[in-house]
Amino acid sequence: MFRRLDEAGKKVRFTYDDQDIEAIENENLAAALLIAGKTSLRVNPVSKQPRAPYCMMGACFECLVEIDGISRQACMVQVSEGLVVNSILDIGGNEDV
Amino acid sequence: MSDENQKTYDIIVVGAGPAGMSAATAAAEVGASVLLLDEQPSPGGQIYRGILSAPEARAKILGSSYTEGLAITKAFSQSSVTYQPLATVWQFDESGSLIYSVEGEVTQAKGSHILLATGALERPVPIPGWTLPGVMTAGAAQILLKSSGVVPDNAVLAGSGPLLYLLATQLIRAGSPPKALVETQTFKDALAAMRFFPLRFSAWKMLAKGFLMMREIKKAGIPRYKAAKGFRAEGSKQVEALSFDHKEERLRLECETLLLHQGVVPNTQITRSLRVQHRWNKRQACFHPFTNGVGLTTNSNYSIIGDGRAIAGAQVAVLEGRSAGSFVAASLGFNVDPADVFKQQKIIKKERAVRSFLDRLYQPPKEILTPANGATVCRCEEVTAGKIREYATIGCLGPNQTKAFGRSGMGPCQGRYCGLTVTEILAEENKSSQQETGAYRIRSPIKPVTLSEIAQCSED
């Protein structure tokens, strides 16, 4: 489990698969999802096994989520009010992102 | 986007870590026009991530190895450098033109010289189960703490390297001490490292810093398992435990977060995409771009400095940045005092001397470099070490061929976290050197882009 050391900053709300999540404005999206208990963010297209943030620096691509129809690395996105985030659960086997 | 919109600069720096910020500041100080592109929202790189906005309490937890970056970050922020955060550079051409995106908006820019300061990646730690949710790099946990003030409870830290101890002390100070440290380092490593210990003040200072960290960890009552091997992350949908061999016993530590670390290696994606020469460094067990003293690559339009060139840490990165920034500015006709550059080069040489000691002390064990058959090597395409060995027996000579044999290195990470392991395994199986075996051929886009971003580019 992960937790925040402090709750300073403006609170904002965003949605992940239609679920309302509270976070701090400009917080790292992957961090906000981990705090919200979303331990796995996608499934691997080959093995269909769950995957979660691994490197937190934009290199491993394990934290891919969908925002505005584009797959983005959650660890490279900042949370803003009303952000709509969806998981990529059913990505085809040969479809590289 | 049209050609008239291509912006030109004397120098374009890529990466806002200690090397990039120092190089950009030094070149701007003597009058060069400098653009610095960085992927993150604020300057600092990974080591000083979020340094301008970290609350005081967080900075205190992170300690002096973090806060000492404040001076260079502030100097950079006050310089005349054009700083573009949130920029993903996804194409470099040999003449010094590059293409980058900021929130989907594409820009083309050209520098008379490009200074790459793209830093390091964590060395892959391909133990069985490392793809399970809850298994992360030690660096990832540090980034969570630096950028968001987020800490894991009861994490198990496993592997070797100074970063493991640093992270342990930071988590202790944050009130979230790790459950245990499981270290691959052996007494034999410590003995073998002794002959590399340089008798210099900076080395003793480093050693003292290490002892203080050990004392803090001991005082907090955190168990340390040394000379551990046979790591396995257990769990089905989420990591549940780390199991390992320790003193003739198989131990199992339950955990929800497992943080792995085996040191860091240069991120060579960009230099590989430029087809410049690289050479295998045996001591650091990774490829280094082939450079001269100030970081010039075998393409005269590009230099590389800091940990992206060879792992040497933040202090050396700052010095390399300053000397390369000054040297490149001088080569473009700006007035620079050569004495400064010589002085920096001298200090770099001294500081680098400590590295051989650290490299030997925290040398990654063989089971990490060439993992057992069951371990996944390519995380994206789920290719195991056993599969890579099988490809070798049916004639696969190099990393590029593994793509055709079984798609390894072809997923979204583009080989960042399997490249070195594939090279090591193939070299061992084919009884060839890592240099001869080579590395994946990297092509642009370096980072995935949308078709609309490509469509914004003008035709050549």
Identify the notable features of this structure and list them briefly:
heterodimer, A: 97 residues, mainly beta, Ubiquitin-like (UB roll), 5-stranded mixed β-sheet, two-stranded antiparallel ribbon, 8 strands, globular, disordered C terminus, B: 460 residues, alpha/beta, 7-stranded mixed β-sheet, 5-stranded parallel β-sheet, 22 strands, 22% strand
Question: What features would you describe in this structure?
Answer:
- The complex is a heterodimer of chains A (97) and B (460).
- Chain A has one domain (17-87): Ubiquitin-like (UB roll) (Roll).
- In chain A, 7% of the residues lie in helices and 32% in strands.
- Chain A starts with a strand and ends in a 10-residue tail after the last strand.
- Chain A contains one helix and eight strands; from the N terminus they run E-E-E-H-E-E-E-E-E.
- Chain B is α/β, with parallel strands linked by helices and 460 residues long.
- In chain B, 37% of the residues lie in helices and 22% in strands.
- In chain B, the strands form six sheets. In chain B, strands 1, 2, 3, 4, 5, 6 and 20 form a seven-stranded mixed sheet that branches. Chain B has a five-stranded parallel sheet with strand order 8-16-10-11-12.
- In chain B, strand 5 (97-102) and strand 6 form a beta hairpin.
- Chain B is globular, with a radius of gyration of 22 Å.
- At the A-B interface, strand 1, helix 1 and strand 5 of A face helix 2, strand 8, helix 5 and strand 9 of B.
Care to give the gist of this entry?
With 97 residues, chain A is mainly beta. Chain A has one helix at residues 29-35; strands spanning 2-4, 11-16, 19-24, 42-43, 50-51, 64-67, 70-73, 84-87. Chain B is built from 17 helices and 22 strands.
Topology:
The complex is a heterodimer of chains A (97) and B (460).
Chain A lengths: L1 E3 L6 E6 L2 E6 L4 H7 L6 E2 L6 E2 L12 E4 L2 E4 L10 E4 L10
Parallel strand pairs in A: 2-8
Antiparallel strand pairs in A: 2-3, 4-5, 6-7, 6-8
Chain B lengths: L6 E8 L3 H12 L4 E4 L18 H7 L1 H4 L2 H8 L4 E3 L2 E6 L4 E6 L2 E12 L3 E3 L12 E3 H11 L1 E3 L3 E5 L1 H12 L6 E4 L3 H8 L6 H19 L4 E2 L3 E6 L6 E6 L2 E6 L3 E5 L1 E3 L2 H5 L4 E4 L4 E4 L12 E3 L9 H18 L6 H24 L4 H4 L6 E3 L4 E2 H9 L5 H8 L12 H11 L4 H4 L13 H5 L5
Parallel strand pairs in B: 1-2, 1-6, 2-3, 6-20, 8-16, 10-11, 10-16, 11-12
Antiparallel strand pairs in B: 4-5, 5-6, 7-17, 13-14, 14-15, 18-19, 21-22
Helix pairs in contact in B: 1-4, 1-10, 6-8, 7-11, 10-11, 13-15
